[in-house]
Specification:
This protein has 21 helices and 13 strands. The chain is α+β, with helices and mostly antiparallel strands. The strands form 4 sheets. Strands 1, 4, 5, 6, 7 and 8 form a 6-stranded mixed β-sheet that branches. Strands 11-12-13 form a 3-stranded antiparallel β-sheet, with no helix packed on it. Strands 2-3 form a two-stranded antiparallel sheet. The two termini are 41 Å apart.
């Protein structure tokens, strides 16, 4: 545990002034609480276990700068500390303060090479179907009202509500038949509308409608139910997909739990989950020069190797947490903006095919000076998929003359600018009189004539250049460094335990992931300082047998 010896004070109390008052009796040092939180995540401990470690472990006391006889603090202090960080908009402080200290020591710097990948995060909620979601949402609202205004609630409902909503939905045996489940769903809907009417009625305190559980009830009822009132009679029905039903909200807006309104359900390949998505960015520089080199921090070489120590470790430089439905491509620019704000922009940024687009390649180079290294999605035309015939790359496009030429030397007849999916494009067509008698027609099109859609010149040329470059052996060797980020994602999920969120809500989950990133960096730096290399691979006992010793 050499953190204190090597780094000194990482989390000064002055950095927490926005979240902690300066009047009254002095409390526990927020800097010490932050360091305790980072150590907690380095071992995936609960709050109670972390508080016990502060009391019992000499190494933790030394890292926190505590006296040996210091009694520590109660476990509930950590929960209150996280709430204050969220309220003070300090969710990124754990990682940012550590990176500033490491940058001051020359252990992390701008330029060089970095890589980014994402992982799914399960929310700290139970997976509910639509019937369970409706029942639990209504029950949670009733429970909140029973705590806040028990006398008012007793006058608004009768005893029959206790029999239906007195227990959590997972403790109930729901009906199995489809008709019974549909009827129960309608009853939930009618009861929910009745409760909302009472809460918004003239006899109810105005502040009741601001309760989080009531707000959750209102939002979920809008998404799950539809009500029509005719001649004083109401009809409540469950929303269904269009065109048969009343329509459902898109997945990016659909609430999946009354307890976490930021969590969303998403599917990536064969994996479906309810919760969030986290993006980790880390350095991945090539081995740098030794300590005797004249220029130990030349461009692209990464931090210098200290005397008597090995290569500096790869360090996490940025963490972004989003709702599960946000695509990776939407986070490429925000990641670059975050790195620019930390003065840690890379020269090369290695990402998988979910992050880039032609626009983003150009934007990264023009705005941030970054070379975005990623395999671009290939041409999806029938000719490209079949690997035979004339795909888009076989045609020559003259943007100045607004004309294209096919492999048979025939010029296009029309060049029409248009917008497709809210993006500018050009539709290039050849005359049917030239395509129908063409001897190579079977290699080109199955229709009467060939028609190709291309992007504007700058985007088209950038995409074509990227697709051509990624087939070279040099590019593949350069991109191979991206694979190492998978080990970081495994370390984050298996060592710090971020696969399932500990807390509710996006802000606290973002805080959790930043503390976890700081913990990963400290684990790696401690291994670097002590000369204990991190295990690169796992091997079985059989693979480790020393046959040379027994021969």
């Amino acid at each position: 545990m050499r953190i204190r010896d090597e780094l000194g004070e990482v989390y000064a109390d002055a950095r927490f002034a926005g979240a902690f008052g300066v009047r009254g009796r002095p409390g526990i040092s927020p800097g010490q609480l932050m360091m305790a939180s980072v150590l907690q995540f380095s071992e995936d401990l609960t709050d109670r276990q972390a508080a016990e470690a502060v009391r019992d472990r000499m190494t933790w006391k030394y890292a926190l700068g505590l006296e040996l006889e210091d009694p520590g603090f109660d476990a509930s202090v950590l929960s209150e500390f996280r709430s204050r960080l969220v309220a003070g908009d300090l969710t990124c402080l754990a990682l940012d303060a550590l990176l500033e200290r490491l940058a001051g020591l020359g252990l992390v710097e701008a330029g060089g090479r970095q890589r980014t990948d994402s992982a799914h995060v399960l929310g700290a909620i139970r997976e509910l179907n639509r019937l369970e979601l409706a029942g639990e949402t209504l029950r949670a609202a009733l429970e909140a009202l029973a705590v806040a205004v028990p006398d008012w609630l007793a006058g608004a409902i009768d005893e029959s509500w206790q029999q239906v909503y007195g227990a959590r939905i997972d403790d109930l045996h729901l009906p199995e038949s489809q008709a019974s489940r549909q009827a129960l769903m309608v009853r939930y809907g009618a009861d929910g509308y009745y409760l909302l009417e009472q809460v918004h009625g003239p006899g109810a305190p105005a502040w009741l409608r601001e309760l989080p559980a009531v707000q959750a009830l209102r939002r979920i009822w809008i998404q799950q139910f539809c009500r029509e009132v005719t001649d004083g009679r109401q009809e409540v029905r469950r929303r269904e997909k269009l065109p048969e039903g009343d329509g459902l909200p898109p997945g990016r807006d659909r609430l999946i739990s009354p307890y976490d309104l930021d969590a969303r359900y998403s599917i990536k390949r064969e994996t479906g989950w309810g919760g969030y998505k986290v993006h980790f960015t880390e350095t991945c520089d090539a081995p740098g020069p030794g300590p005797d080199a004249q220029d130990a921090t030349g461009p692209g070489t990464g931090p210098a190797r200290a005397a008597g120590r090995g290569e500096p470790p790869n360090l996490v430089t940025n963490v972004v947490t989003t709702q599960a439905t946000v695509p990776d491509s939407a986070m490429t620019t925000p990641v670059h903006q975050d790195l620019a704000g930390k003065d840690l922009l890379p020269g090369e940024h290695l990402v998988d095919s979910g992050y880039p687009s032609a626009e983003l390649i150009i934007d990264a180079a023009r705005v941030f000076g970054i070379t975005l290294v990623s395999p671009m999605l290939l041409d999806t035309s029938a000719q490209a998929r079949a690997g035979a015939g004339y795909d888009k790359a076989a045609f020559a496009f003259d943007f100045d003359a607004r004309q294209a030429t096919c492999p048979q030397g025939i010029a296009s007849s029309t060049w029409t600018p248009c917008r497709q999916r809210h993006e500018e494009a050009n539709v290039v067509s050849w005359p049917a009189t030239a395509c129908l008698p063409c001897p190579a027609r079977q290699l080109c099109t199955s229709g009467r004539r060939r028609q190709i859609t291309i992007r504007p010149r700058e985007l088209h040329e950038a995409l074509a250049a990227a697709r051509a470059e990624q087939t070279s052996a040099q590019w593949k060797a350069r991109y191979a460094a991206r694979a190492g980020v998978e080990g970081t994602m495994r370390q984050a999920t298996h060592v710090t335990g971020i696969r399932r969120a500990r807390y509710l809500g996006l802000p606290k989950t973002q805080l959790e992931h930043n503390i976890a990133a700081a913990a990963i960096n400290m684990i790696r730096m401690d291994a670097y300082w002590t000369g204990h290399p991190l295990d690169r691979t796992r091997s079985s006992h059989l693979a480790r047998l020393g046959f040379t010793l027994t021969a």
